[in-house]
Design a protein that fits this description.
By secondary structure, the chain is of the alpha+beta class. Helix content is 31%, strand content 30%. It is built from 4 helices and 12 strands; from the N terminus they run E-E-E-E-E-E-E-H-H-E-E-E-E-H-H-E. Strand 8 and strand 9 form a beta hairpin. Helix 1 crosses helix 2 and helix 3 crosses helix 4. The longest helix has 17 residues. It is globular and about 40 Å long.
């Protein structure tokens, strides 16, 4: 298919919610090609343990690109154990300056249970305001819902699950098949 005919991959909503000493990262399972759902059970939230320290990552974008970034992040974390922000900044620098990595199309939400970060190919390493981060096609829907739910007494997991359910009801590129990982700081 010529590039102008390729309808493009869509799908994925990933949310990270920090509350009461824990962070929950939840992701849906949908991958769409144009108007067709290709897979509804993809797993886009992973737990990594570089150097024996747990880190939870959620990704949106190309799966192969995201796995390349996760492998690079693991190496950065092994080089700087326990320093998530430093490892993410180093990854973002490489991603921004390396000609091969510049072509990667993905975004990451990363947490060690204390720090919650969004890492982008534009060189951004962002700690979100209001203890909520969201990426992907339905990310803005989930983010809005979670921000509203932060005013309640719900747990981080309940907020993430309800926000994802709201996003799935609104965004055609988001489904309710969730992978949820919780990590304490």
């Amino acid at each position: 298919m010529a590039d102008e005919q390729f309808p493009g991959w869509h799908g994925t909503t990933i949310i990270g919610v920090r509350r009461d000493g824990e962070v929950v990262v939840a992701g849906d399972g949908q991958v769409s090609l144009g108007q067709t759902v290709i897979k509804g059970t993809a797993r886009k939230v992973r737990r990594l343990s570089p150097g024996g320290r747990d880190v939870v990552c959620g990704f949106a974008g190309s799966t192969a690109d995201a796995f390349t970034l996760l492998e690079r992040l693991e190496k950065k974390l092994e080089a700087a154990p326990g320093q998530l922000t430093r490892a993410c900044v180093e990854l973002a620098k490489d991603w921004r300056t390396d000609k091969y990595l510049q072509k990667l199309e993905a975004m990451l939400i990363v947490t060690d249970g204390t720090t919650l970060l969004v890492v982008t190919g534009a060189g951004d390493v962002l700690e979100p305001e209001h203890d909520v981060a969201a990426i992907g096609s339905g990310g803005n829907f989930a983010l809005s819902a979670a921000r509203g739910l932060m005013e309640t007494d719900l747990s981080a997991e309940d907020i993430a699950r309800k926000a994802m359910a709201i996003a799935a009801d609104i965004c055609v590129y988001t489904n309710g098949n969730l992978t949820v990982e919780t990590i304490r700081g």
